[in-house]
Design a protein that fits this description.
By secondary structure, the chain is α/β, with parallel strands linked by helices. The chain folds into two domains: about 110 residues, no CATH class; about 120 residues, no CATH class. The chain is built from nine helices and eleven strands. The strands form two sheets. It has a six-stranded parallel β-sheet. The chain has a five-stranded mixed β-sheet with strand order 8-7-9-10-11, covered by helices on one side. Strand 1, helix 1 and strand 2 form a beta-alpha-beta unit.
């Protein structure tokens, strides 16, 4: 199938789509331009889709809260309640990255703390609060399966990457959200806190920056089950 995701920079969260499609639908995919895509799944990419687009949306979100979406897509899932606001239909809410722990074997815990900086974040790994624990620095630009394995090997995660937090939730690892400076200083290009609040709304949480906590496990499990159903539907459509 033709699959669109943001690929200007290697970023494991954006690259998850093809891995998930292969794992759960046994389907191959190739990257395509938005207008030619049959499916979009991970990332804040709905603004990239042309007016009248008629493909399948299975978990993607908006980058900006004020965006009005104008397409005729088959919506199976959206990332969260904020993206879904004003959109009619019967669809799941949640980021497909919540199933990415299924892409690797169960991981042995090797690190007390993992740091997952957003690819623009040059400060998080140098924060003295965390350096004292000799953390494992996890690069989101590394191959996706390597990133997933390394997150799964940590007892706690601190991340300024949204999918760093989503993977911590998938593995049921306590996590702490930090904001990459560029997210705050460039809200027009980076979206500010919107994508965080959008994802967290899907698991009945609010954004708390700088607080170490476990994700809402019961709700996360519910969302994971709904996402399994979404992948089953994708498989039925394309097989």
């Amino acid at each position: 199938m033709n699959l669109y995701y943001w690929n200007v920079k290697n970023n494991f969260g954006d690259l998850l789509s093809s891995f998930l499609i292969k794992r759960f639908c046994h389907l191959d995919s190739k990257w395509s331009q938005p207008k030619e895509a049959e499916l979009v799944m991970c990332g804040s990419i709905l603004e990239h889709l042309p007016v009248g687009w008629e493909g399948i949306i299975a978990g993607a979100g908006k980058l900006h809260e004020e965006t009005k979406l104008k397409f005729n897509a088959n919506i199976l899932a959206l990332r969260g309640y904020l993206t879904a606001k004003g959109i009619k239909g019967n669809f799941a809410l949640g980021d497909p990255g919540l199933l990415a722990n299924e892409l690797v074997p169960l991981q042995e815990k090797k690190y007390n703390l993992g740091i997952v900086p957003h690819w623009t974040d040059k400060t998080l790994e140098h924060n003295k609060i965390f350096k004292q624990f000799s953390p494992k620095i996890i690069r989101v630009t590394d191959p996706p399966l390597k990133v997933i394995e390394e997150i799964g090997q940590c007892k706690k995660i601190v991340s300024s990457s949204l999918h760093g937090i989503i993977l911590a939730d998938a593995f049921n690892i306590p996590r702490r959200i930090e904001m990459a400076p560029r997210m705050i200083s460039h809200p027009k290009t980076e979206g500010g806190t919107f994508k965080w609040r959008d994802y967290l709304s899907s698991i009945d949480e609010i954004l708390e920056i700088g607080v170490t906590k476990e994700g809402n496990y019961n709700k996360i499990t519910d969302v994971q089950h709904e996402l399994f159903d979404v992948f089953e539907e994708i498989g039925n459509i394309f097989h």
